[in-house]
Amino acid sequence: RIQSTIHQLTSTCWDKCITSAPGNSFSRSEASCLVNCVERFLDTSLYLVNQIQNKRVSQ
C-alpha cells in the first residue's frame, strides 16, 4: 500500500512539475513545484485518513 502511494505521488508530481527533459538537476521552479506538490499530496492523504477514521469512530 505504501509503495503504491509513493508511486502515485511520484507520478503525479513529476507530470505536474517537470515540463522539459530532466538534466543534472531541477530548476528552481521545478524544485519548488515538487516540494509544494508533495506537501499537498501528503496533507490531502492525511486529511482523508482522518476523515475515514472519524466516520468509523462515530458509527
TrEMBL record:
<protein>
    <recommendedName>
        <fullName>Mitochondrial import inner membrane translocase subunit</fullName>
    </recommendedName>
</protein>
<keyword id="KW-1015">Disulfide bond</keyword>
<comment type="subunit">
    <text>Heterohexamer.</text>
</comment>
<keyword id="KW-0143">Chaperone</keyword>
<dbReference type="InterPro" id="IPR035427">
    <property type="entry name" value="Tim10-like_dom_sf"/>
</dbReference>
<keyword id="KW-0999">Mitochondrion inner membrane</keyword>
<keyword id="KW-0472">Membrane</keyword>
<feature type="domain" description="Tim10-like">
    <location>
        <begin position="2"/>
        <end position="53"/>
    </location>
</feature>
<keyword id="KW-0811">Translocation</keyword>
<comment type="function">
    <text>Mitochondrial intermembrane chaperone that participates in the import and insertion of some multi-pass transmembrane proteins into the mitochondrial inner membrane. Also required for the transfer of beta-barrel precursors from the TOM complex to the sorting and assembly machinery (SAM complex) of the outer membrane. Acts as a chaperone-like protein that protects the hydrophobic precursors from aggregation and guide them through the mitochondrial intermembrane space.</text>
</comment>
<dbReference type="GO" id="GO:0015031">
    <property type="term" value="P:protein transport"/>
</dbReference>
<dbReference type="GO" id="GO:0005743">
    <property type="term" value="C:mitochondrial inner membrane"/>
</dbReference>
<keyword id="KW-0653">Protein transport</keyword>
<dbReference type="InterPro" id="IPR004217">
    <property type="entry name" value="Tim10-like"/>
</dbReference>
<comment type="similarity">
    <text>Belongs to the small Tim family.</text>
</comment>
<keyword id="KW-0496">Mitochondrion</keyword>
<keyword id="KW-0813">Transport</keyword>
<dbReference type="Pfam" id="PF02953">
    <property type="entry name" value="zf-Tim10_DDP"/>
</dbReference>
